[in-house]
Every structure is written in structure tokens, then in C-alpha cells.
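Hallway conversation turned thread

IA: we were arguing at lunch whether anyone had actually written out Enoyl reductase (ER) domain-containing protein end to end. Turns out nobody had. So, for the record, here is the sequence (359 residues) and right after it the C-alpha cells. Reply here if something looks off.
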Amino acid sequence: MPVVTNGRVVYVEHPVGSELYQPEKHSKYVEEQIDTDTVPLNGGVLIKVLAISSDPYMRHRMRDDDLPLFCPPLIKGELIDNFSVGKIIRSENPEFAPGDYVIGYFSFENYHVYPSGVTNAFKHCIKVPKIPGLPLSAFVGVLGLAGRTAYTGWQLYGQEKAKTSKTLFISGGAGAVGTCLIELVKTLHPDLKIIASAGTQQKIDLLKSLGVDVAFNYKEDDAVKVLAENGPIDIYWDNTSGYQTDAALQNINMHGVIIACGAIAGLNDEEKGVVRHFEKIFERSVHVYGFLFRTGEDSEKAFHAFDKEVIPLIVQGKIQNREHRFIGLQNAGKALQSVHTGENFGKAVIIVDPEGGEA
Ligand SMILES: NC(=O)c1ccc[n+]([C@@H]2O[C@H](COP(=O)([O-])OP(=O)(O)OC[C@H]3O[C@@H](n4cnc5c(N)ncnc54)[C@H](OP(=O)(O)O)[C@@H]3O)[C@@H](O)[C@H]2O)c1
């Protein structure tokens, strides 16, 4: 095979404090030439990267590694990496053959050498089948981190509580995790009243089209008032932390449950992440459950149960694949930034190769 151009996205420097990640300042797109026939694999595989996920947690990785966190830091001067889907081009590993589709934690580049024998919660390479009717990019969205996170948190902490609950509030409702969760809950608990928030009218309209009972714009509406009028809240799915979590705490029912999934509000503005009403947790006997994707035995079990329980719902269209596509690695930085500005309407994905976007 000929020498080809390998586009790559290098991490350059950390945003300082609460600074918003800026593609041109904190990363750069570069190109190199590689010969896909001769590039050394050392027992590994050569992957043509097809699609890559853009996730809010990547901002947590933009830091020095002296701060212990749940995810590995990005290293200045090295390639950015994240959950991806690709196709095997060459293999020195008997488990993989050319043409196999794989998901894993691959670098932001067109052609990625995945070494043999590296496996941990982040570094992995797993063969996947092509699912009819769905693009391969769905493996980094509804079939990947977003869908599995919604299912895991709900199965572990929401499902049982929902049997005796009337009202669920979801902040960040129109995002990748939020929309999967809404459709899952609509299927499993059609009588549960759902309140959900988002930051634009287009997203509010989406929430309404999904059958949410009360949708509000957290930037314009008074969340405390909306929840007071439509609560009390039995279950709060927290994608944001900050002011919306305070509003939920002020309106949580006795013995309410909070499922702490994410805290995007404070990622780019520390002040916006502040929660003040912790006293409601003891005053109202609230149970707060935090969880991380594929961390711990229960979470790992849910990860695998997803295949049997949720993939059929996705194939039937009961849970939809909604993507906001950024085409080409040149636009990877825009994708990484979009989840913090709210530009993404659906799961933010980078389509690295056209095959990644084909159904
Ligand atoms: N626990 C886990 O293992 C796990 C796994 C995956 C994701 N998560 C978390 O789940 C949450 C949702 O992730 P996702 O992948 O579905 O992302 P997403 O919702 O598709 O994208 C992020 C959205 O967050 C909203 N946002 C940005 N800044 C905000 C702020 N200051 N206050 C409130 N909302 C803000 C924006 O929507 P608006 O236009 O509505 O503002 C943006 O579109 C994130 O907190 C993420 O870190 C957790």
C-alpha cells in the first residue's frame, strides 16, 4: 500500500484554571507521511480510525498529572486520545484480522498503531459487529459511553426507586447521556413525570418531542420556581452540578435519590459549579449516588447487560442515535470545545473517515 498522509491532533498546553479549551491555542493539527505496509506494529495492529468521541470529561484531562483524578491527563506534545471506532488494516495479533471493526481508546490520527498487550479501563481494543441501520460512529455515542452511562446509572440507582416515584428531573437533558436516559425511562417507566433542562430553544423543542412533561431553559427560567411548581423531585439525575443541583436540592422529596453523573457547570467556571444546599441531604434523608463508567463491579456488570437489554431498543428505534458530526480531524478541536459551549446538538462525534458515518 502506498505512503499516505496521517493527520494528527497534538495536545499543546493546558487551559489555565477555568479557561475554556480553545482548539488553536491548546492543540494543533499536523500531518505526517506513513507507509501503512511497513510501519512497525511490534505484535500489535494498524487501525484506520473512523470516528472519535468528544466528551465533557476530556476537560478533566487537561491538567498536570500531579492531581489524582479518574482519568489519565493529556500529555503536552503527545497526541490526544479518546473512545473511538476503527477498522483493522494490518495485524500481527492473531485475535484481529484486516477488515475487523474495533472500538478502543485510540489517538486522534487517521492511522493508529495499537500495541499488543495493553488493556485497562481506558486502553482497550475490542472487536465489534456492524449493526445494521446504524453508523459505526454510534459505537462512540448511543452504543458507547453515552448510552452505557445512562443505562448504568439508571439500572444501579434509578430503576428500583422509580417504582415508588412520581417525578424525575434531569439537568443537561438534551445532551448525549440525557436523551438516551429520557428514551430509556420513557420505555421502562411510562408513568414517571419527567422534568428536563437545556440551554437553547432548539434543545427545549427536542426535549418536548421526546415526551418530556416539563422542559425549561436553565439560562432563562428560574429553576427553583419551575421545580417548585412541578415537584417535589423524587429522583434527580445530575449532569451539571452547580445552580441546577441547588435548585433540585431545594425541591427534593423526602427520601429522594440523586444520581450524580457529571458536573459540567464547574468545568469551565469554578463559581458556576458551586452547590450550597447540602443541608437538604440530611434534612430530607436524601441518598446521593455517584458513579463512573466501567468503574467497580456493578458498573462493569451493567456495561455488559447493556448489550442484551438496550441494544435491541436502539435497533427498534426506541432509543435513537442523535449525532452532531464534526467532519475530519481538522475539526476535532471544535468538537472538543462544542460540549462546553453547548454548540453540540446530539452526541458530539468526529467523523475521521467517511466510512465511520455510513449506516
Ligand atoms: N459518570 C460517568 O461515567 C459519565 C460518563 C459520561 C458522561 N458523564 C457526564 O454526563 C454529562 C453529560 O455528558 P454528555 O456526554 O451527554 O454531554 P452533552 O450533554 O452531549 O454535552 C454537554 C452539554 O452540557 C451543557 N453545558 C455546557 N456547559 C454547561 C453549564 N455551565 N451548565 C449547564 N450545562 C452546560 C451543554 O448543553 P446546553 O446547551 O443545554 O447548555 C452541552 O451541550 C457531563 O457532565 C459528563 O461529564 C458522566
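OS: looked through it. The mean pLDDT is 95.
IA: good, adding that to the notes. The chain has two domains: 3-141+321-357, 145-290.
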